[in-house]
Amino acid sequence: MARSVWSLWDEEDVEPLMVDEATDPKLWLMSLSNTLPQRKFVQVLVTLWAIWWARRKAIHEEEFQSPLSTFLSIQNYISEIEWEKKEHAKPGASRNKDAKWLPPDVGFCKINVDGAVAKSCVRGAVGAVCRDERGRFLGASAVVYAGVTDPTMLEAYACKEALELVEDLSQHKLMIASDCLNVINDIRAKFYKGYYCMILRDIEQRRVSFQATKYGHEQREANGEAHRLGWLPLKRLDAMFGFWIHRIIFVYP
Fold first, then answer.
1. Model confidence, pTM
2. For residues 22 and 31, is the Cβ–Cβ distance under 8 A?
3. Which of 58, 101, 167, 217 would you call most buried, defined as having the most Cβ atoms within 10 angstroms of its Cβ?
4. Are 229 and 116 in contact (CB under 8 A)?
5. Are 66 and 124 part of one and the same domain?
């Protein structure tokens, strides 16, 4: 399956993947992120994810997708990413709102988080975008939750996802920014009651793994990237790959 999908790409696109001799998957990806152009690296990530998804559907649900269908889905998704970039780059787009991004304290990274609820099905999603104190992009992730449509619970899940993302990025001092004041206040006050208390407890347990953690409330206009990322899997990926509940991470050099 995987070999058939990779064979549909141009040879010049696949050759750099075979040259790298790293045996650890994470080190292999990090090496590729440093050597490949950004567009090529995105192509690799999307291809790996699509192959994994097709294999999962075949093994666990006995739904089989041809290598050509998987390949076309990959191309379609990459085209969607490029379209989103072009739309965002147009004059008068939401760039002005993103210009209000507020930097964290010196030595800290900042993760903007947000949640989104699907309009046509019972599921929600969260997005997390991490930048350093200078605003340089470090990584991002998105997660879809089946059966979760409560906005406040999704915001709590988004804060939890921020901690997991920062751990993957090997950062030690962080600030999490959300536009949900209730969740931020509950985390600060260590108020572990209510219907999403277990999520808050998990956040507190994970917090001790870092040197310093801060939580801040920001208005929606300063949270544009995370808001769009939270909506992305609900609007785009579901239409191409079907129902998915796993985590996808984007890390660029």
1. 0.63
2. yes
3. 101
4. no
5. no
